[in-house]
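Support reply, case 0932

Customer input (verbatim):
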Amino acid sequence: MTLDANTANLARHRPRAIPLSSPPPDPRLEAILESISDAFYAVDPDWTYSIFNAAAEAYFGIPRDQVLGRDMWDVFPQGVGTPFETILRRAMDERKGAQFESPSRWRPDRTVEVRVTPLVTGGIGVSLHDVTARKRAEEARELLIREVDHRSRNILAVVQAIVKMTEGPDLDSYKEAVFGRINALARAQGALAGQRWENAPMRGLLEEAMFALAPPERYDLDGPDIALRPDEAQPVSMIIHELATNASKYGALSAGGGRVEIRWSVEGGARSLCWRERGGPPTTPPAAAGFGSRLIRQLARQMAAEILLDWRPEGLSATLTLPTA
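Our regenerated output:
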């Protein structure tokens, strides 16, 4: 056999060189990647883009024909020198995948779950799943938990004060007073819960407070549609309860022809709530302030509000002025 023949024979059996570029994508894989909602792209070992699905086009706002075949760090220079680059290079060099959540550097208003996966072709794949809605829901849940904890502690403190400071000539009177005040507190909490703990409508809160102590034909409610903040709803409900309780025992609601008028208004941002009793027995200022009067003033101070109690002969008049909303 001649030298040329040996050379030809070796050439026929020499292993073929492996191309540096990745093999063409499987059409079935491409179809799957196009159908998913997560943004997905893949880069070859030389950091050139080889896959860029439709969701990636929408997420980054770049058509794939401007990306495929280009160096990733030329397309995405803001990623250079960041922890994201470190994670990708570790996945490329050490074949170690990663999964993490992060605010999007491309879209700062979004939070994404990023998965980095080494591919059998030698490159890496990166998928981005938008978890903004879940993160916001989790934050809202945590905020609600803290708010419930705060409100629970506040309610317990109020209940303790009611139990400790309520007075009565006998046990039955004491129980009635305590239960009435706690029920007023519960009604305010129910009104807030119905509004997802945001604001409580003034009219609805007053209707709840009055209906518990008097038939609707004994009182009039009139005023614009305004809402009370959560830190105002509870004190206002309890103030109305105290006024209505006093009217039922000694004022306009204790007599057959007596009535109560409740008006509220907004002037220059300040909100006023006026209570007027008519047709009841003549009233005179008490010789000493009872627990109800002291509680009303304490509740007003809690809201940084002003309360004026005027025992007129025709009936008690009370004006509550709330600060600017």
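We compared this against your earlier run and they match. Two observations from our side: Residues 132-165 form the longest helix (34 residues). The domain at 24-130 is CATH 3.30.450.20 (Beta-Lactamase). Please reopen the case if you see a mismatch on your end.
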